[in-house]
Protein 1
Amino acid sequence: MTTLEAEENQVQEVKKDKKIKKICFILSKSQMDSAYAAMVMANGARMEGIESEMFFTFFGLDAITKKKMNDLHQPTVGNPSFPFPAMIGGLPGMEALVTSQMKKEMERLDMPPVEEFMEMISMSGGKIWACKLAMDMFKLKKEDMVDYLDGVLTIGDFYERAAGEGTHIIFI
């Protein structure tokens, strides 16, 4: 074995030891694109055998609130990725139109609605947590949330769950 091959083998061993073991997502917004980004990544992690935990805080709670989760919107005002001038994004009905178009495209791509997607993540072993502070601020109770909610945590509790080598935290 050459020196180069030995070094390559050593690099591969180090990579194995540093493999991602858990990903924790923090969702603080109820925008459709934010919620789906978190769900796609959490589901992908579970499919790869990686532990996945989702922590919903502030307006992100809408994605796990029974009355709101299936009515998330895609804002056009203040969205730097909106492909038209900002004035057009503020026109009446524009947000509803963009949201409708996004839902149609997701349906075409066979992406499940929010409620079904979240349930899939839960059933695959992903953990779903609500933020205690945000729940208190918005006067929400556990009964207002999805049935498969794993619990309500303080941020300190969440950080304890996120502790450990091989854990990554992603804020969306």
Protein 2
Amino acid sequence: MEWFSALDSFAQFFWIIAGIGSLVFTFIIITTFTGVDGGDDFDDIEDLDSGIEFQFITFKNLVGFFTIFGWIGIAGINAGFSRPVTVITAFGCGLLMMAVMAAMFYAMRKLTDSGTLDYKNAINSIGEVYLTIGANRTRMGKVSIRVQGTLRELEALSDSFTDLKSGTLIQVTDVTSNGILIVNETKKPIEPIKQETYEQLPSNTGSL
């Protein structure tokens, strides 16, 4: 406390910001990467356009800004920078930290989203009945179908007038709100006929 009291108000300002920011920043980073409960309690402050995916102004990014702002300010004071230069340098480094954190969390969300199954992507896909599906949605069955590059077994219903037996080729026509596929019987896609080309051999026109 004696050491802190000996500092001028300008230095105390940066030390307070750096100390508080570092504690909160450390807690957020630990809970984010370890998945400990409580990390999601820090709700992001929505940007003016709440529909954008890349968010620059969030609570986590602001914490990162003030942490770097405080420590760079302390470094500037120790380096003998003038007050204006110290503030400008600290502010610029804080903004850079915000950009880095925004990009990092954006990439993490993209990785998470890429592993999430979106049943709508199965519409129009062709697969095969795995467990018999009852006619006119009387009994739920399962189909084997490739969605988002992975072969999956998903629950399905059908509006067909007859049961769709195991092995029947189907096409997904719709998806219910709770993720059940609506399928109909289909035929195997007809592959285009490959045109064969024949090389004409040269004829011998000479006489013996």
